[in-house]
């Protein structure tokens, strides 16, 4: 059995799980881009704060939703095929935890980006 790495977990995952992981990665990159745009805009207050605010809570929930979906699929398979050894269940468990961790990482990125933007907005408003 090959070693479980983030890449092998992703490549062996079901299509809905892969879509969730890609969506989380794109969301994190978009958060960084929105933050960079807002910081570079100088004294102009541009949009994007609502996206960052939503990402703070939305990303962990999306990761949790993916993990719950994965767990549901594992339990359906267990009900269909009966007891399985832990080495058969381990990839599915790793996939579920991978989704939770990805959601939390993107949520942390969202929180940090939101703090940066809010600090910049506070400075701009207090100077006016």
Low-confidence stretches: none
Our Rg estimate from Cα atoms comes to 19 Å
Give the helix tally. 4
Shape: elongated
Please provide the count of β strands: 0
Order of helices and strands: HHHH
Helix percentage? over 70%
Q: In this structure, how is the largest beta sheet organized?
A: none
Residue-averaged pLDDT, rounded? 88
> Helix/strand/pairing class, anyone?
mainly alpha
User: Whole-Å distance between the termini?
Assistant: 62 Å
Work out the strand percent: under 5%
Number of domains: 1
Explain the overall architecture.
- Helices cover 84% and strands 0% of the residues.
- It is mostly helical and 128 residues long.
- The chain has one domain.
- It is elongated.
- The protein starts with 5 loop residues before the first helix and ends with a helix.
- The model has no long low-confidence stretch (mean pLDDT 88).
Name a few traits of the molecule.
elongated, mainly alpha, cell membrane, 0% strand
List the helices and strands and how they pair.
Blueprint: H1 6-12, H2 15-40, H3 49-81, H4 86-127
Helix pairs in contact: 2-3, 2-4, 3-4
């Amino acid at each position: 059995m090959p070693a479980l790495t983030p890449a092998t977990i992703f490549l062996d995952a079901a299509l809905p799980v892969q879509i969730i992981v890609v969506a989380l990665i794109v969301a994190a990159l978009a958060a960084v881009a929105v933050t960079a745009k807002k910081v570079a805009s100088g004294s102009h207050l541009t949009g994007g704060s609502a996206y960052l605010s939503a990402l703070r809570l939305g990303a962990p929930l999306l990761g949790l939703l993916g993990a719950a979906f994965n767990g549901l699929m594992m339990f359906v398979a267990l009900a269909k095929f009966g007891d399985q050894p832990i080495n058969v269940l381990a990839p599915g468990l790793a996939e579920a935890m991978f989704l939770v961790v990805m959601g939390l990482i993107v949520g942390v990125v969202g929180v940090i980006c939101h703090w940066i933007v809010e600090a910049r907005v506070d400075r701009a408003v207090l100077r006016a």
